[in-house]
Amino acid sequence: MDLLVVVPHPDDEVFGAGGTLIQYAEWGLETGLITLTRGEAGRTLGLCAPEELGEVRAQELRRAAEVLRLGHLELYDFPNGRPNGAGAGEARGLGFASPEGVADHPEIVDLLLWRFEVLRPRAVITFAPNGSNRHPDHVATHRFVREAVRRSGQRIRLFYYAPLSPSPEYQEGWLPPTHVRHLPLEVLLRKLKAMAQHRTQALSVLNFMDRFPHRLAVESFHLEGHEGPVERELLWYAGP
What's a Gene Ontology MF term here (predicted)? Predict the structure, then answer.
């Protein structure tokens, strides 16, 4: 596989990498997505009962995956946590982890290690150390993926979501972009269509569009270990 995105929730795939996934699939590269939870702790907006949300969001993700032209999709049902530790029980989710980030969920690292061995991704995209917005599940997923890549022994190019300029409250843990991609209009329109598939999370989608409109048409990433000038493409392949 050429490019694999690993995120905790349905809709995490589209905001920061949706256009890149679309464009790389158009160029004939093999793209894939691993989503660790069904997002059952999110909003329903009255579109379903709370106990139905996990399945509804799974359906939304499958529709978005079609728009993104993903060649491979895996959706798991690890517990979804709420931001800032709100709620109790299973709401603590992936982010209920030790400071080292992996000790409380070794099964997730083991799962990712196995999937990397099977899928053999050339590049992986996930969240940066700050999780973009410090959501505990985002931060934990960064740690799980980084550890699985380390253990794999494979030559995997590990990319993190890296907005050009972070909000002041998310400055800690932000990494500067090493790769910046400007999306063509036709790709941007399809990215917006993929975002629209996550209907139960429409308020999150609108909030993202309101606060970070510049991130709709520009997707930027930080490549771990990168040295040199900012580049355009994530792989050896530079487009048609």
Answer: hydrolase activity, acting on carbon-nitrogen (but not peptide) bonds, in linear amides
Whether residue 206 lies inside any domain: the answer is yes
pLDDT of 100 reads: 52
* Three-state SS annotation for 178-237: CEEEECCHHHHHHHHHHHHCCHHHHHHHHHHHHHCCHHHHEEEEEECCCCCCCECCCCCC
Phi, psi of 161 (to 5 degrees): -55, 130
Q: What is the pLDDT of residues 50-68, one digit of tens each?
A: 999 999 999 999 999 999 9
Q: List the chain residues with pLDDT less than 50.
A: 85-91, 98-99
Residue 166 belongs to domain with CATH number: 3.40.50.10320
Contact between 180 and 48 (Cβ < 8 Å): no
Segments forming the whole domain that contains residue 103 = 3-223
Asked if residue 108 lies in contact with residue 150, where contact means CB atoms within 8 angstroms, the answer is no
Nearest CA to 3 out of 217, 219, 170 is that of 219
Q: How many domains does the chain have?
A: 1
Question: Residue 235: inside a domain, yes or no?
Answer: no
Residue at 2: amino acid letter: D
Is there a domain that residue 37 lies in? yes
Report which residue type is found at 87: G
**And the tokens for 102?**
């992996």
Please report whether residue 76 resides in a domain: yes
Rg (alpha carbons) of the chain, rounded to whole number = 17
Whole-model pTM: value is 0.92
pLDDT tens by residue, 127-162: 999 998 889 999 999 999 999 999 999 999 999 999
Minimal CA–CA distance to 177: which of 218, 214, 237?
Answer: 218
Tokens of 203: 């308020």
State which H helix or E strand residue 59 sits in. helix 53-68
